[in-house]
Specification:
It is a single chain. It is built from 13 helices and 5 strands. By secondary structure, it is mainly alpha-helical. Among the domains are: 56 residues, no CATH class; 104 residues, no CATH class. The protein has a 3-stranded antiparallel sheet, with no helix packed on it. Strands 3-4 form a two-stranded antiparallel sheet. Helix 5 packs across helix 12. The longest helix is centred in the first third of the chain and has 23 residues. Its EC number is 1.3.99.23. It is found in: Endoplasmic reticulum membrane.
Protein backbone atom coordinates (compact mmCIF):
# COMPACT_ATOMS: atom_id res chain seq x y z
CA UNK A 1 0.00 0.00 0.00
CA UNK A 2 2.95 2.33 0.50
CA UNK A 3 3.47 3.05 -3.25
CA UNK A 4 -0.24 3.78 -3.62
CA UNK A 5 -0.24 6.17 -0.66
CA UNK A 6 2.82 7.95 -2.03
CA UNK A 7 1.19 8.21 -5.46
CA UNK A 8 -1.98 9.72 -4.01
CA UNK A 9 0.05 12.18 -1.94
CA UNK A 10 2.05 13.29 -4.98
CA UNK A 11 -1.11 13.66 -7.07
CA UNK A 12 -2.85 15.72 -4.39
CA UNK A 13 0.16 18.00 -3.96
CA UNK A 14 0.49 18.50 -7.70
CA UNK A 15 -3.21 19.34 -8.09
CA UNK A 16 -3.04 21.88 -5.26
CA UNK A 17 0.02 23.52 -6.85
CA UNK A 18 -1.73 23.64 -10.21
CA UNK A 19 -4.82 25.27 -8.71
CA UNK A 20 -2.74 27.78 -6.76
CA UNK A 21 -0.73 28.81 -9.81
CA UNK A 22 -3.87 29.08 -11.90
CA UNK A 23 -5.57 31.34 -9.38
CA UNK A 24 -2.74 33.58 -8.28
CA UNK A 25 -0.01 33.62 -10.90
CA UNK A 26 -1.78 36.14 -13.14
CA UNK A 27 0.79 35.59 -15.90
CA UNK A 28 -1.51 34.01 -18.48
CA UNK A 29 -3.13 36.34 -21.02
CA UNK A 30 -6.88 36.72 -20.88
CA UNK A 31 -8.32 35.08 -24.04
CA UNK A 32 -11.49 37.19 -23.68
CA UNK A 33 -9.78 40.57 -23.37
CA UNK A 34 -10.63 41.49 -26.97
CA UNK A 35 -14.10 41.45 -28.44
CA UNK A 36 -13.87 39.47 -31.67
CA UNK A 37 -17.56 38.67 -32.07
CA UNK A 38 -19.43 39.40 -35.24
CA UNK A 39 -23.19 39.93 -35.23
CA UNK A 40 -24.90 36.53 -35.00
CA UNK A 41 -27.28 35.51 -37.74
CA UNK A 42 -30.95 35.44 -36.77
CA UNK A 43 -32.26 32.17 -35.40
CA UNK A 44 -34.60 30.49 -37.86
CA UNK A 45 -37.77 29.40 -36.06
CA UNK A 46 -40.14 28.95 -38.99
CA UNK A 47 -40.61 25.21 -39.51
CA UNK A 48 -40.96 25.44 -43.28
CA UNK A 49 -37.80 27.52 -43.55
CA UNK A 50 -35.91 25.11 -41.31
CA UNK A 51 -36.74 22.24 -43.63
CA UNK A 52 -34.65 23.96 -46.30
CA UNK A 53 -31.60 24.28 -44.04
CA UNK A 54 -28.78 21.90 -44.90
CA UNK A 55 -28.58 19.42 -42.05
CA UNK A 56 -25.00 18.32 -41.69
CA UNK A 57 -24.92 14.74 -40.52
CA UNK A 58 -23.38 13.37 -37.37
CA UNK A 59 -22.57 9.82 -36.39
CA UNK A 60 -25.11 8.21 -34.10
CA UNK A 61 -24.36 8.72 -30.42
CA UNK A 62 -24.33 6.28 -27.52
CA UNK A 63 -25.41 6.63 -23.89
CA UNK A 64 -28.39 8.88 -24.59
CA UNK A 65 -30.95 6.71 -22.84
CA UNK A 66 -33.10 8.24 -20.10
CA UNK A 67 -31.16 8.55 -16.86
CA UNK A 68 -27.70 8.49 -18.45
CA UNK A 69 -25.10 11.14 -17.64
CA UNK A 70 -24.83 12.26 -21.26
CA UNK A 71 -28.58 12.65 -21.58
CA UNK A 72 -28.72 14.61 -18.31
CA UNK A 73 -26.04 17.06 -19.47
CA UNK A 74 -27.64 17.67 -22.86
CA UNK A 75 -31.06 18.07 -21.25
CA UNK A 76 -29.60 20.90 -19.16
CA UNK A 77 -28.22 22.86 -22.12
CA UNK A 78 -31.32 22.30 -24.26
CA UNK A 79 -33.87 22.57 -21.43
CA UNK A 80 -35.02 19.06 -22.22
CA UNK A 81 -36.34 20.06 -25.66
CA UNK A 82 -33.98 17.85 -27.68
CA UNK A 83 -35.50 14.44 -28.25
CA UNK A 84 -33.24 11.44 -28.83
CA UNK A 85 -34.58 8.55 -30.89
CA UNK A 86 -33.02 5.13 -30.28
CA UNK A 87 -31.81 3.25 -33.33
CA UNK A 88 -33.47 -0.06 -33.98
CA UNK A 89 -31.72 -3.14 -32.64
CA UNK A 90 -29.37 -4.39 -33.97
CA UNK A 91 -27.83 -0.94 -34.38
CA UNK A 92 -24.89 -2.38 -36.35
CA UNK A 93 -24.37 -5.49 -38.46
CA UNK A 94 -20.85 -6.67 -39.13
CA UNK A 95 -20.47 -8.60 -42.40
CA UNK A 96 -17.67 -10.99 -43.34
CA UNK A 97 -17.28 -12.25 -46.89
CA UNK A 98 -15.21 -15.39 -47.41
CA UNK A 99 -14.85 -18.65 -49.33
CA UNK A 100 -17.78 -20.08 -47.39
CA UNK A 101 -20.05 -17.20 -48.27
CA UNK A 102 -21.44 -14.23 -46.41
CA UNK A 103 -21.76 -14.13 -42.63
CA UNK A 104 -23.57 -11.47 -40.63
CA UNK A 105 -22.96 -10.60 -36.99
CA UNK A 106 -25.61 -8.31 -35.45
CA UNK A 107 -24.75 -5.94 -32.62
CA UNK A 108 -27.82 -5.69 -30.39
CA UNK A 109 -28.72 -2.82 -28.10
CA UNK A 110 -28.41 -3.48 -24.38
CA UNK A 111 -25.55 -5.19 -22.59
CA UNK A 112 -27.27 -8.55 -22.15
CA UNK A 113 -28.51 -8.68 -25.74
CA UNK A 114 -25.13 -7.49 -27.03
CA UNK A 115 -23.28 -10.27 -25.23
CA UNK A 116 -25.87 -12.92 -26.07
CA UNK A 117 -25.68 -12.00 -29.74
CA UNK A 118 -21.93 -12.60 -29.74
CA UNK A 119 -22.25 -15.89 -27.88
CA UNK A 120 -24.87 -17.19 -30.30
CA UNK A 121 -22.40 -16.69 -33.15
CA UNK A 122 -19.42 -18.05 -31.21
CA UNK A 123 -20.76 -20.73 -28.82
CA UNK A 124 -17.32 -22.29 -28.46
CA UNK A 125 -15.79 -19.02 -27.26
CA UNK A 126 -18.25 -17.90 -24.61
CA UNK A 127 -15.58 -17.76 -21.91
CA UNK A 128 -13.38 -15.56 -24.10
CA UNK A 129 -16.30 -13.22 -24.78
CA UNK A 130 -16.97 -12.92 -21.04
CA UNK A 131 -13.33 -12.05 -20.39
CA UNK A 132 -13.39 -9.50 -23.20
CA UNK A 133 -16.52 -7.76 -21.90
CA UNK A 134 -15.14 -7.70 -18.36
CA UNK A 135 -11.91 -6.16 -19.63
CA UNK A 136 -13.82 -3.54 -21.62
CA UNK A 137 -15.74 -2.56 -18.49
CA UNK A 138 -12.68 -2.37 -16.25
CA UNK A 139 -10.59 -0.40 -18.74
CA UNK A 140 -13.31 2.08 -19.73
CA UNK A 141 -14.13 2.82 -16.09
CA UNK A 142 -10.56 4.05 -15.61
CA UNK A 143 -10.78 6.83 -18.22
CA UNK A 144 -10.86 9.55 -15.50
CA UNK A 145 -7.27 8.59 -14.68
CA UNK A 146 -6.14 10.03 -18.01
CA UNK A 147 -8.13 13.21 -17.34
CA UNK A 148 -6.52 13.55 -13.92
CA UNK A 149 -3.07 13.52 -15.50
CA UNK A 150 -3.96 16.71 -17.39
CA UNK A 151 -4.09 18.56 -14.07
CA UNK A 152 -0.58 17.52 -13.11
CA UNK A 153 2.66 19.26 -14.09
CA UNK A 154 4.44 17.44 -16.90
CA UNK A 155 7.56 16.64 -14.79
CA UNK A 156 5.35 14.89 -12.22
CA UNK A 157 3.66 12.80 -14.90
CA UNK A 158 7.02 11.90 -16.41
CA UNK A 159 8.33 10.85 -13.00
CA UNK A 160 5.30 8.67 -12.31
CA UNK A 161 5.65 7.13 -15.75
CA UNK A 162 9.34 6.34 -15.30
CA UNK A 163 8.56 4.70 -11.97
CA UNK A 164 5.94 2.52 -13.65
CA UNK A 165 3.23 3.69 -11.27
CA UNK A 166 0.82 4.92 -13.95
CA UNK A 167 0.35 1.60 -15.69
CA UNK A 168 0.58 -0.34 -12.43
CA UNK A 169 -2.39 1.30 -10.74
CA UNK A 170 -4.54 2.26 -13.73
CA UNK A 171 -6.06 -0.41 -16.02
CA UNK A 172 -6.91 2.33 -18.51
CA UNK A 173 -3.33 3.57 -18.76
CA UNK A 174 -2.06 0.00 -18.87
CA UNK A 175 -4.39 -0.73 -21.79
CA UNK A 176 -3.06 2.38 -23.52
CA UNK A 177 0.23 0.55 -23.96
CA UNK A 178 -1.40 -2.45 -25.66
CA UNK A 179 -2.94 -2.64 -29.10
CA UNK A 180 -6.41 -4.04 -29.71
CA UNK A 181 -4.97 -6.88 -31.78
CA UNK A 182 -2.50 -7.75 -29.03
CA UNK A 183 -5.20 -7.95 -26.35
CA UNK A 184 -7.52 -10.11 -28.46
CA UNK A 185 -4.67 -12.49 -29.22
CA UNK A 186 -3.81 -12.72 -25.53
CA UNK A 187 -7.43 -13.59 -24.77
CA UNK A 188 -7.15 -16.49 -27.20
CA UNK A 189 -9.90 -15.35 -29.57
CA UNK A 190 -10.15 -17.02 -32.96
CA UNK A 191 -9.30 -14.96 -36.02
CA UNK A 192 -12.99 -14.68 -36.88
CA UNK A 193 -13.95 -13.51 -33.40
CA UNK A 194 -11.06 -11.04 -33.46
CA UNK A 195 -12.42 -9.58 -36.69
CA UNK A 196 -15.94 -9.25 -35.27
CA UNK A 197 -14.82 -7.66 -32.00
CA UNK A 198 -12.63 -5.22 -33.95
CA UNK A 199 -15.31 -4.20 -36.44
CA UNK A 200 -15.73 -0.71 -34.99
CA UNK A 201 -12.11 0.37 -35.56
CA UNK A 202 -12.93 2.66 -38.56
CA UNK A 203 -14.74 4.92 -36.08
CA UNK A 204 -11.43 5.91 -34.51
CA UNK A 205 -9.52 5.54 -37.77
CA UNK A 206 -6.66 3.22 -36.79
CA UNK A 207 -6.28 -0.47 -37.56
CA UNK A 208 -6.44 -2.96 -34.65
CA UNK A 209 -2.70 -3.57 -34.67
CA UNK A 210 -2.03 0.15 -34.19
CA UNK A 211 -4.95 1.25 -32.01
CA UNK A 212 -4.77 1.31 -28.22
CA UNK A 213 -7.13 -1.07 -26.46
CA UNK A 214 -8.10 1.76 -24.11
CA UNK A 215 -9.61 3.71 -27.03
CA UNK A 216 -11.44 0.63 -28.25
CA UNK A 217 -12.82 -0.18 -24.79
CA UNK A 218 -14.20 3.35 -24.41
CA UNK A 219 -16.02 3.13 -27.71
CA UNK A 220 -17.44 -0.36 -27.20
CA UNK A 221 -18.70 0.55 -23.73
CA UNK A 222 -20.15 3.78 -25.12
CA UNK A 223 -22.35 1.90 -27.59
CA UNK A 224 -23.19 -1.08 -25.39
CA UNK A 225 -26.72 0.24 -24.84
CA UNK A 226 -27.21 1.02 -28.53
CA UNK A 227 -27.16 4.11 -30.70
CA UNK A 228 -29.27 7.29 -30.62
CA UNK A 229 -29.92 10.14 -33.02
CA UNK A 230 -31.55 13.55 -32.46
CA UNK A 231 -35.13 13.44 -33.69
CA UNK A 232 -35.49 15.89 -36.56
CA UNK A 233 -31.82 15.80 -37.54
CA UNK A 234 -28.53 17.08 -36.19
CA UNK A 235 -29.49 20.75 -36.68
CA UNK A 236 -31.91 20.33 -33.76
CA UNK A 237 -28.91 20.32 -31.41
CA UNK A 238 -28.00 23.90 -32.33
CA UNK A 239 -31.64 25.00 -32.59
CA UNK A 240 -32.41 24.06 -28.98
CA UNK A 241 -29.04 25.12 -27.56
CA UNK A 242 -28.77 28.64 -29.04
CA UNK A 243 -31.69 30.17 -27.08
CA UNK A 244 -30.22 28.93 -23.80
CA UNK A 245 -26.86 30.50 -24.63
CA UNK A 246 -28.45 33.79 -25.68
CA UNK A 247 -30.59 34.07 -22.54
CA UNK A 248 -27.43 33.67 -20.49
CA UNK A 249 -25.90 36.66 -22.26
CA UNK A 250 -23.87 34.76 -24.83
CA UNK A 251 -23.81 34.97 -28.60
CA UNK A 252 -23.56 32.25 -31.21
CA UNK A 253 -21.61 32.89 -34.39
CA UNK A 254 -22.93 31.30 -37.57
Amino acid sequence: WLPLVLLLAVLLLAVLCKVYLGLFSGSSPNPFSEDVKRPPAPLVTDKEARKKVLKQGIHYIGRMEEGSTGRFILDQITEGQLDWAPLSSPFDIMVLEGPNGRKEYPMYSGEKAYIQGLKEKFPQEEAIIDKYIKLVKVVSSGAPHAILLKFLPLPVVQLLNRCGLLTRFSPFLQASTQSLAEVLQQLGASSELQAVLSYIFPTYGVTPSHSAFSMHALLVNHYMEGGFYPRGGSSEIAFHTIPVIQRAGGAVLT
